[in-house]
Amino acid sequence: MHFMIFAFALYFVPAIVAAARHTHNATAILLINIFFGWTVIGWFAALLMAICSAPYYVYYARRGW
Q1: C-alpha distances out from residue 22 to 4, 5, 18, Å
Q2: 29 within a domain of the structure (yes/no)
Q3: How far apart are CA 6 and CA 48, in angstroms?
Q4: What are the pLDDT digits (tens) for 16-28?
């Protein structure tokens, strides 16, 4: 049972990395991971996209001094 949980988490590593880095294309990486992750090339492509994508920063306006 623990192996199944580990394998499931390992399969979604690219999506987890993209979500943790707050990339702008995290949804696309998740979809690539779901549909093409079962191929080794698709999994590595999603992981590469997750690592190389620029994080999405939210800048908040500062009020007052």
Answers
A1: 27, 24, 6
A2: yes
A3: 21
A4: 999 999 999 999 9
